């Protein structure tokens, strides 16, 4: 299946728009895994196992693995998810943004080494920095649009000549020109629900990756109301730390699962209002 097909099926089969982010911080891992070889893999594998039934996808953040020299553990983790949960899309959160042969290598890294279903990219260097990813037509390309961090406004609110803010120009550019194969999505932060609504109005039913709930404080009800597509889905609402680090004690698996279920249910309750 293509990324979009997997995503649509996960939304339906798991009745979930929750995406579980994997940001493994060795200083916050459960006490039983402290200083153990392969701890990052074992931790993330267990999180996937206890949340797989309640999520529309898994989003490893590559920096958390690379900083620990754990790229091989990330590769093993992606292999495990594809083998054990082939129905779940893997979104590699890399936020790459370069041109030419370098972009081609980043695309190979995401789609051939890790065999992710989708990758996040930056549009700042324009179409030729995104084109190498789009050539993998069965894969998803998720473009940064309106990010959840406060500093995002430094550039994303700059106005074009016609008064359109840059983030809405990006939304239109991706939806109208870059998404020729129907494989694109946009990143829009839950911390800015008004902007989510404006992006949704521009792009129709294109999927949104929405970070910023949980530890970042984004409002679920406002996010869902602003971002749903015409089918009542349309979003990958990411939560990482609130699920991963729900407990460091012996109950950490149960605590992570309970946090994922509670978040999935809160999203569905907001959708059904």
From TrEMBL:
<dbReference type="InterPro" id="IPR001754">
    <property type="entry name" value="OMPdeCOase_dom"/>
</dbReference>
<dbReference type="GO" id="GO:0044205">
    <property type="term" value="P:'de novo' UMP biosynthetic process"/>
</dbReference>
<feature type="active site" description="Proton donor">
    <location>
        <position position="95"/>
    </location>
</feature>
<dbReference type="Pfam" id="PF00215">
    <property type="entry name" value="OMPdecase"/>
</dbReference>
<keyword id="KW-0210">Decarboxylase</keyword>
<keyword id="KW-0456">Lyase</keyword>
<feature type="domain" description="Orotidine 5'-phosphate decarboxylase">
    <location>
        <begin position="17"/>
        <end position="256"/>
    </location>
</feature>
<dbReference type="InterPro" id="IPR011995">
    <property type="entry name" value="OMPdecase_type-2"/>
</dbReference>
<comment type="pathway">
    <text>Pyrimidine metabolism; UMP biosynthesis via de novo pathway; UMP from orotate: step 2/2.</text>
</comment>
<dbReference type="GO" id="GO:0004590">
    <property type="term" value="F:orotidine-5'-phosphate decarboxylase activity"/>
</dbReference>
<dbReference type="InterPro" id="IPR011060">
    <property type="entry name" value="RibuloseP-bd_barrel"/>
</dbReference>
<keyword id="KW-0665">Pyrimidine biosynthesis</keyword>
<comment type="similarity">
    <text>Belongs to the OMP decarboxylase family. Type 2 subfamily.</text>
</comment>
<protein>
    <recommendedName>
        <fullName>Orotidine 5'-phosphate decarboxylase</fullName>
        <ecNumber>4.1.1.23</ecNumber>
    </recommendedName>
</protein>
<dbReference type="GO" id="GO:0006207">
    <property type="term" value="P:'de novo' pyrimidine nucleobase biosynthetic process"/>
</dbReference>
<dbReference type="InterPro" id="IPR018089">
    <property type="entry name" value="OMPdecase_AS"/>
</dbReference>
<dbReference type="InterPro" id="IPR013785">
    <property type="entry name" value="Aldolase_TIM"/>
</dbReference>
């Amino acid at each position: 299946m293509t990324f979009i097909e997997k995503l649509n099926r996960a939304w339906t089969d798991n009745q979930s728009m929750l995406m579980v982010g994997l940001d493994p911080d060795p200083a916050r891992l459960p006490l039983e895994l402290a200083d153990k070889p392969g701890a990052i893999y074992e931790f993330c594998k267990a999180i996937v196992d206890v949340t797989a039934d309640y999520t529309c996808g898994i989003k490893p953040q590559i920096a958390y693995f690379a900083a620990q020299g754990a790229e091989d553990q990330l590769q093993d983790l992606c292999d495990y998810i594809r083998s054990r949960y082939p129905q779940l899309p893997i979104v590699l959160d890399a936020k790459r943004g370069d041109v030419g042969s370098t972009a081609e290598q980043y695309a190979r890294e995401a789609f051939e080494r890790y065999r992710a279903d989708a990758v996040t990219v930056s549009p700042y260097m324009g179409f030729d920095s995104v084109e190498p990813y789009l050539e993998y037509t069965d894969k998803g390309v998720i473009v940064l649009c309106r990010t959840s961090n406060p500093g995002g406004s430094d550039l994303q609110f700059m106005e074009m000549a016609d008064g359109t803010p840059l983030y809405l120009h990006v939304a239109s550019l991706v939806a109208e020109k870059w998404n020729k194969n129907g494989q694109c999505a946009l990143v829009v932060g839950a911390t800015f629900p008004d902007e989510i609504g404006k992006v949704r109005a521009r792009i129709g039913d294109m999927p949104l990756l929405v970070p910023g709930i949980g530890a970042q404080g984004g409002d679920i009800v406002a996010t869902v109301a602003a971002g749903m597509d015409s089918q009542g889905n349309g979003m990958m609402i990411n939560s990482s730390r609130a699920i991963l680090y729900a407990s460091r004690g012996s109950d950490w698996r149960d605590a992570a699962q309970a946090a994922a279920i509670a978040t999935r249910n809160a999203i569905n309750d907001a959708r059904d209002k």
